[in-house]
C-alpha cells in the first residue's frame, strides 16, 4: 500500500476553489480566511460501508454521497458551503477504486464551491467521515426551533426516493440512470434552496432520517405539533411502480435518505418561497400545517392500511 502521503498527493491534493485557503493540504493544519463578519457553520457525518451504502456501490457514488450527506446539513441551515475535511478509512488502496472515489468527491466539491482542505487516511473497514464548513451572515441560520403554530409545512422535491433506491439496489438494479437508484446513491443536497429560504422559512431540517422522524425533531425543538396532509406528499417518480402504493407512502414517511428540505413558513410567505425555489428549478410542496397541540396527526386518514404499522412511530 502506498503511504498515506503518496495517496493524498495523488488523489486528494487540488487547487483550492478560491483564495480563502491560505494553506491547504500538506502541512500539520490548514489555514483558512473566513469572510469578514460571517459565522462559521460546521457539521460532520460519517458514512460506513454496508450501513450507509452498499460495499459494491460505484466508488464515484460513494465519494459523492459521503460529501452530499454532510453538505445537506449546511443546506438545512441555509449556509454557503466553503471548505471540507475528509477522514478516509479503507481496507486497501486500489488505484482504480480510489481514482473513481476521488472523482465523485471532487466533482461535488466543484459543483458546490467547496475546497477539500485536509484530511487523513487510515487502514480499516471502509468509512468516510466528512466535516463541512460553511458561512452565514450572523443570525440568519435556519434553525429547527423557529416554527410557530399556524405556519405551513412544506418540502422541496420529492420523498421516498432514497428508500426506493435502496430497494431497487436490493432488487438488483445497477443502472444509476434509474431515478430511484440515483436518489439513493447520488443525492443532491439542496444548497441553493436552503440559501434562498433564509429570511423566509421559520425553521428547516434536511430529511435524512425520514419525514416523520425529522418533522418530530422540528416539532420538539419548536414546541408545536403538526397536521399532515398525506395525500399531498410528493412521491418520488417511479416509487409507486416499484414498491406499490402502500410501501411507497411508507418510504415517503419513514424511509429516510431523501436529503430534501422540510421547512415551516408563515402562510403569507409561501408564494415568495415557491417563487424563489422555482427560479432554481426546485419544486416546493405544502404538506400540512403546524399547530399548538403537540403530536403529528392526519396521515393515517389518507394512507393505505399498511400505514397502521407505522403508528407506533408517531407520538
Ligand atoms: Mg440534518
From TrEMBL:
HAMAP family: TMP_kinase (MF_02128). Reaction mechanism of ThiL seems to utilize a direct, inline transfer of the gamma-phosphate of ATP to TMP rather than a phosphorylated enzyme intermediate. Mg(2+) 5 binds at residue 209. This is Thiamine-monophosphate kinase. Its EC number is 2.7.4.16. Pfam families: AIRS (PF00586), AIRS_C (PF02769). Mg(2+) 4 binds at residues 28, 43, 73. Substrate binds at residues 52, 257, 307. It catalyses: thiamine phosphate + ATP = thiamine diphosphate + ADP. ATP binds at residues 119-120, 144, 208. Mg(2+) 2 binds at residues 45, 73. GO terms for molecular function: thiamine-phosphate kinase activity. Mg(2+) 1 binds at residues 45, 120. It comes from the Bacteria. Belongs to the thiamine-monophosphate kinase family.
Amino acid at each position: 500500500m502506498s503511504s498515506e502521503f503518496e495517496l493524498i498527493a495523488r488523489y486528494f491534493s487540488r487547487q483550492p476553489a478560491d483564495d480563502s485557503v491560505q494553506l491547504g493540504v500538506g502541512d500539520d493544519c490548514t489555514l483558512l480566511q473566513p469572510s469578514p463578519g460571517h459565522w462559521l457553520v460546521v457539521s460532520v457525518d460519517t458514512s460506513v460501508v454496508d450501513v450507509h451504502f452498499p460495499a459494491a456501490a460505484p466508488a464515484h457514488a460513494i465519494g459523492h454521497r459521503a460529501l452530499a450527506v454532510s453538505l445537506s446539513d449546511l443546506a438545512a441551515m441555509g449556509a454557503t458551503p466553503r471548505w471540507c475535511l475528509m477522514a478516509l478509512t479503507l481496507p486497501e488502496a486500489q488505484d482504480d477504486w480510489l481514482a473513481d472515489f476521488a472523482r465523485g468527491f471532487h466533482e461535488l466539491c466543484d459543483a458546490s464551491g467547496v475546497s477539500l482542505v485536509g484530511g487523513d487516511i487510515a487502514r480499516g473497514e471502509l468509512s468516510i467521515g466528512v466535516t463541512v464548513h460553511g458561512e452565514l451572515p450572523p443570525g440568519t441560520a435556519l434553525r429547527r426551533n423557529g416554527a410557530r403554530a399556524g405556519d405551513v409545512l412544506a418540502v422541496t422535491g420529492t420523498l421516498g426516493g432514497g428508500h426506493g433506491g435502496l430497494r431497487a439496489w436490493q432488487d438488483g438494479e445497477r443502472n444509476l440512470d434509474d431515478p430511484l437508484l440515483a436518489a439513493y446513491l447520488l443525492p443532491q443536497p439542496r444548497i441553493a434552496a436552503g440559501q434562498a429560504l433564509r429570511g423566509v422559512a421559520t425553521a428547516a431540517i434536511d430529511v435524512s432520517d425520514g419525514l416523520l422522524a425529522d418533522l418530530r425533531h422540528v416539532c420538539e425543538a419548536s414546541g408545536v405539533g403538526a397536521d399532515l396532509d398525506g395525500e399531498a406528499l410528493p412521491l418520488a417518480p417511479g416509487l409507486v411502480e416499484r414498491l406499490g402504493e402502500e410501501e411507497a407512502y411508507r418510504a415517503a414517511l419513514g424511509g429516510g435518505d431523501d436529503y430534501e428540505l422540510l421547512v415551516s413558513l408563515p402562510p403569507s410567505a409561501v408564494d415568495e418561497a415557491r417563487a424563489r425555489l422555482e427560479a432554481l428549478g426546485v419544486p416546493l410542496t405544502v404538506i400540512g400545517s403546524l399547530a399548538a397541540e403537540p403530536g403529528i396527526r392526519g396521515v393515517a386518514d389518507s394512507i393505505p392500511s399498511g400505514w397502521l404499522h407505522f403508528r407506533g412511530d408517531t407520538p
